[in-house]
């Protein structure tokens, strides 16, 4: 089930957390993973995948730079001849109440979380259209669906990914390209461990399943949407949030 054998897959923000787990799970299902991150930050991800017997390579990528994206995509095509899956995972958060939020914090979050998805998707669409197949999956957030105080910039970027994906899905469906979104809830990562320790009870009370999610929970959803079994699913938001938002 959900084999990704030989599918050439680009995962942005693959150096840690959710992105690293997505890359690892995809490789374990047979994908050829291009682990993209700034500099050689994804080297650890690639080393872990290859040690486990998977196929992966490092790609240096600044998702906010159009030239960097173009170089990464052209390099992938030169090495592999096709691109089957793009996972838009790269993202940042710069939380602050609206009255105190600096314009740069707004601009940087939108550029990294939303505009990068446009840039990367546009770059891979030409080979996907030529192939008449492809999967584009963007990682949104429960915050983009329900909002959260102090995260107006983050919520806007993640909600934007949903609208962007639904519109793009309509444009490219005739070429057998699907475009979907995975919206994680509160996921246990290195960045959230401290917050979890401080507010475990508060968060648990908002989650019907009574626990934080794991990066593996999110990666499994991405692998499903990238698989042949999901070929009739497009323009959808798959929530992985334990019931936090329904």
Brief characterization of the structure:
It is built from eight helices and nine strands. With 246 residues, it is an alpha/beta fold. The chain has one domain: Rossmann fold.
Highlighted features:
single chain; 246 residues; alpha/beta; 7-stranded parallel sheet; two-stranded parallel sheet; 9 strands; globular
Query: From the coordinates shown, what is the CATH architecture?
Result: 3-Layer(aba) Sandwich
CATH class designation: Alpha Beta
Describe the global form. globular
The percent of residues in helical segments reads 40-55%
Average pLDDT works out at 95
Domain count: the total is: 1
Query: And the CATH topology?
Result: Rossmann fold
Largest sheet: 7 strands, parallel
End-to-end separation in angstroms reads 27 Å
Instruction: Report strand order across the widest sheet.
Output: 3-2-1-4-5-6-9
Structural class comes to alpha/beta
Give the CATH H-level superfamily.
NAD(P)-binding Rossmann-like Domain
Radius of gyration: 17 Å
pLDDT < 50 stretches? none
Instruction: Write down the oligomeric state.
Output: single chain
């Amino acid at each position: 089930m959900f084999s990704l054998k030989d599918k050439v897959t680009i995962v942005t923000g693959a150096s840690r957390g959710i992105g690293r787990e997505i890359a690892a799970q995809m490789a374990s299902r047979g994908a050829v993973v291009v682990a993209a991150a700034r500099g050689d930050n994804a080297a650890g991800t690639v080393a872990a995948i290859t040690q486990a017997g998977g196929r992966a390579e490092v790609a240096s990528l600044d998702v906010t730079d159009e030239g960097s994206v173009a170089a990464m995509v052209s390099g992938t095509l030169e090495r592999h001849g096709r691109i089957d899956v793009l996972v838009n995972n790269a993202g940042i958060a710069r939380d602050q109440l609206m009255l105190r939020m600096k314009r740069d914090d707004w601009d940087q979050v939108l550029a990294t979380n939303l505009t990068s998805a446009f840039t990367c998707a546009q770059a891979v669409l030409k080979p996907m259209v030529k192939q008449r197949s492809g999967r584009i999956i963007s990682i949104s957030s429960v915050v983009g669906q329900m909002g959260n105080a102090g995260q107006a910039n983050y919520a806007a970027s993640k909600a934007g990914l949903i609208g962007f994906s639904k519109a793009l899905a309509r444009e490219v469906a005739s070429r057998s390209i699907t475009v979907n979104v995975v919206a994680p809830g509160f996921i246990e990562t290195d960045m959230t461990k401290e917050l979890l320790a401080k507010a475990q009870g508060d968060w648990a009370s908002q989650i019907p399943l009574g626990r934080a999610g794991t990066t593996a929970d999110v990666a499994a959803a991405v692998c499903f949407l990238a698989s042949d079994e999901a070929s009739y699913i497009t323009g959808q938001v798959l929530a992985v949030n334990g019931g936090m938002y329904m």
